[in-house]
Amino acid sequence: MPRLAALLQQVSLYVHLQRLDDDLAAEARRAGCECGGRLHSARYPRKPRGGPGEIGAGIMWRQSFCCARDGCRRRVTPPSVRFLGRKVFFGPVVVVLSALGATLSPMRLHRLREIIGVSLRTLKRWASWWQNDFASSRFWKAAQGRLAPPAPTATKLPGALVARFDGDEEKQLISTLRFISSVTTATARNSMAL
Ligand SMILES: [Zn+2]
Asked: Which is deepest, 22, 89, 117, 180, by most CB within 10 Å?
């Protein structure tokens, strides 16, 4: 199994990502609502798929907040490195399988899909999401301006994006997840979620 894919079976990856999500949530809470109001927790349960057996069956919490001020009550959902929009699989699973989907032989890709539990149909839907929804999102358009050398073309996403970050495969994966973590929140009104 490619090293990047082996990471998806390591509980330590998800523990690390959970900690990063806690930090992102704390930051959002400190910033408060746009109206100046305080934020109360309005987290909701998720049961993301594709993680290792030990955590695969458990419920996880997607941090979310609600403005405490009457008349506002705005919902604020912080960026996340574990959840990519409303996709039912973990964010790292979506990134890794999409990246490897473009490089592995059909046989090896089939074996990997079996292990993680991702259908070919789902993988194709993700590919379309990267190339269309993600590539045309406000988030990606803004992000492209910050990348030098220039951002990879849509058809090379997300593999070429992962390869842009320094370090071993785990660092590259986590950096990618951090980089795209605000994609859900930045474009929530832009039907980014699948
Ligand atoms: Zn408010």
From this structure: 180
> Cα(8)–Cα(172) distance, rounded to whole angstroms?
13
Instruction: Give distance in angstroms: CA of 57 to centre of ligand 1.
Output: 35
Structural domain includes residue 190: no
What residues are neighbours of ligand 1 (ion), with CB under 5 Å?
33, 35, 37, 67, 69, 72, 74
Q: For residue range 107-128, list pLDDT tens digits in order.
A: 999 999 999 999 999 999 999 9
Q: How far is the CA of 39 from the centre of ligand 1 (A)?
A: 8
The predicted-structure confidence for 135-181, as pLDDT tens digits, reads as follows: 998 889 888 888 888 888 999 999 999 999 999 999 999 999 999 99
Whether 191 is in a domain gets the answer no
* Residue 170 belongs to domain spanning: 3-185
Distance CA 80, CA 72 (A): 24
Would residue 19 count as lying in a domain? yes
Measured in Å, residue 69 CA sits from the centre of ligand 1 at: 6
Q: Which residues contact 52 (CB under 8 A, 6 or more apart)?
A: 8, 9, 10, 11, 14
| Cα-to-centroid distance, 194 and ligand 1 (Å) | 27
